[in-house]
Specification:
There is one protein chain. The protein contains 20 helices and 19 strands. The chain has 611 residues and is of the alpha/beta class. It has a 7-stranded parallel β-sheet. The radius of gyration is 28 Å and the shape is globular.
């Protein structure tokens, strides 16, 4: 059983180990009382087990505050377990007991809005404004940037601390010392992998090698260093670090020479940017990363974004329980206890899994995932609020259009759409009885493999293909868990049960073992998804082919369509597919409000204005 930086018993929470200073124990007790009051005010009825878990979390943070158990500790308390409220309660108790000043705290969150929410709660609880500083660059934030004024409580974003590996001024108090405690809300990714495609880097440098002898030398060094190493890895041997291929003295003249090339065409400018990126990378030790998926390998190095000097951090991250990428950081230990993970029963939460392709490319070409999301929306009772989570930009717009075309308004109070990126910080949807994930957030496998090496602080750290896929699945599951917890399952009743909710996951990935591990009692159901008939599949192909053609009033020959997509169907099946394609094309035109429709005229399809 994993323990945190302390080893409490499971007796009455008031009997958990006393701190080395009387003030620390008094602080835990008062913070715990404030935390319980906040939970109840926000609709939770914490069970005895939940109360005990909160005590342990506060006890752990106070031990870190007083230097009893310094370090970087991740606390995987479930979403909705009151992690952020525990931070606010601790700060309130520190103020009431006049601990602030002697002790200072920095709170770090992803969004400025989350920081403003914390500041609002503190000010509403009678903490003076001059006690709470907030650092940001937004002009329209709820609270203005307090600048260089160092206050006992400081609030800053992840991005501010993850810039270049140096310590920003907000990390130090007025005495010039590091804050006694840093509280990091959500995932702490302390490193960044910088990865370039190996083939593209060699091609771009090779292009300029023909006209620049200095670049030619670098290109030759890269070719010699990587050909043998890549062959070794493909033969199953361990990765090796490659020493810098460019000196500091060589870098500046190479950059000047590359920048002086007078390319006007987009292709030439892209090659130049790729070559410049390669020059900058090759100044450092690198390694070759092969994701073992048949694609091109990458060249990588890593940088530490959150300096190790910032060593006393309480990380409040529910996904740390299952996300292997977050667990790979050797500077972070688990502070999670059994009480923290097991107090919440998810038996009233059902997950329906729809095994349908839902990657970005699949949703743009097939669209089955979006059609399934629309079907789910139409079948659910109107008085049961639904939250959809999907990709940004064109796919969000496509989902909204399809919902609208089906008579489901994504702007109605009972049907809302958000995109990945808001799935960890927006808690305004706890009224939703259903959360529908239309596609899952994932990184390319090469990026995941590179970030793993970065997190382990080892350029040569690798996993085999099966291990990489397991890593990728754990990262996806961590993000999916955060997303579905935007809904009402986030709330907990007096018996420690999550509020009843249904999560709908439209994706091929099977996340059941990981989500059940993180959310005990979860009910899982794999939906029987109707496979498209050959005619339906052919109709989708016809639509995608027609949409890929330049817009023109000229007729499109049906024979040319069938030849282009290689359809091998009976005559009646071809006719059925063509009719279905016409319906889909016309629906798309109506949804977009173009004023056109598609018709079958003789042996051709024609796009005509609606008269």
């Amino acid at each position: 059983m994993k323990r945190g930086p302390f080893d409490p018993g499971i007796a009455d929470v008031a009997d958990v180990r006393a701190g080395p200073l009387p003030a620390s124990e008094e602080l835990v007790q008062l913070a715990h009382a404030r935390w319980l009051s906040s939970l109840r005010k926000n609709g939770n009825q914490p069970s005895p087990e939940h109360q005990h878990a909160g005590w342990q979390l506060l006890r752990a943070m106070v031990d870190q505050l007083y230097g009893v158990s310094p370090g970087r500790y991740a606390y995987a308390v479930p979403c909705g377990g009151g992690k952020t409220q525990a931070v606010v309660a601790l700060l309130l108790a520190m103020f009431e007991l006049q601990v602030l000043g002697g002790k200072t705290v920095l709170v770090v969150a992803q969004q400025v809005s989350a920081l403003c929410s914390i500041k609002r709660q503190l000010l509403d609880s009678a903490i003076p404004e001059h006690v709470v500083g907030i650092i940001h660059s937004l002009s329209d934030a709820e609270y203005p940037n307090t600048g260089s004024d160092k206050r006992p409580i400081m609030l800053a974003t992840h991005a501010r601390l993850q810039r270049d590996g140096s310590l920003p001024e907000c990390c130090r108090n007025r005495r010039g010392e590091l804050h006694d405690l840093v509280v990091w809300d959500e995932a702490l990714i302390s490193t960044e992998a910088i990865c370039l495609d190996l083939a593209e880097t060699r091609t771009s440098l090779g292009h300029f090698a023909e006209r620049c002898s200095a670049v030619a030398k670098v290109h030759a060094r890269l070719r010699d260093a990587t050909e043998q190493e890549h062959a070794r890895q493909q033969a199953g041997q361990d990765a090796r670090e490659i020493a810098p291929l460019i000196t500091e003295e060589e870098t500046a003249p190479l950059e000047v020479e590359l920048k002086s090339t007078g390319y006007l065409a987009e292709t030439g400018r892209k090659l130049r940017e790729q070559a410049l990126a390669g020059i900058r990378l090759l100044r450092y030790p690198i390694s070759i990363v092969d994701a073992r998926n048949g694609n091109s390998a990458g060249l990588m190095r890593y940088v530490v974004r959150v300096p190790d000097e910032l060593s006393n951090i309480a990380i409040l991250d529910a996904s740390h329980a299952i996300d292997e990428l977050r667990q790979a950081d050797p500077t972070i230990r688990s502070g999670t206890t059994e009480a923290m993970t097991n107090f919440k029963d998810f038996g009233a939460v059902k997950v329906k899994h729809y095994p349908i392709p839902s990657g970005r490319d699949a949703m743009r070409t097939e669209g089955r995932a979006i059609l399934e999301a629309v079907r789910i929306a139409k079948e659910l009772p109107h008085d049961e609020p639904v939250l959809f989570v999907t990709y940004k930009d064109d796919l969000e717009r496509k989902l909204r259009r399809e919902l609208q075309a089906a008579g489901v308004s994504a702007e109605a109070a009972s049907r809302r759409v958000i995109t990945w990126g808001r799935h960890t910080s927006d808690n305004s949807y706890t009224h939703c009885k259903h959360v529908v994930l239309v596609g899952l957030l994932r990184l390319p496998l090469l990026a995941t493999a590179s970030q793993l090496a970065a997190q382990t602080r080892d350029l040569t750290h690798r996993r085999n293909k099966l291990g990489l896929l397991g890593l990728e699945r754990s990262v996806i599951a961590g993000e999916a868990m955060q997303a579905i917890n935007r809904g009402c399952m986030r709330l907990t009743d007096a018996e420690g049960k999550a509020h009843p909710m249904t999560a709908h996951i439209i994706a091929l990935d099977d996340l059941q073992p990981l989500l059940e591990k993180a959310m005990p009692g979860l009910q899982w159901q794999t939906a029987a998804v109707k496979e498209p008939t050959r005619a339906e599949a052919a109709a989708d192909q016809i639509v995608q082919h027609v949409l890929s053609l330049p817009e023109s009033p000229k007729p499109v020959s049906k024979q040319s369509i069938f030849a282009s997509i290689g359809l091998d169907l009976r005559k009646d099946a071809k006719a059925e597919a063509m009719q279905q394609a016409l319906v889909l094309l016309t629906m798309r035109e109506l949804t977009r409000g173009t004023g056109f429709r598609w018709e079958e005229v003789g042996r051709s399809l024609v796009r005509r204005a609606i008269s």
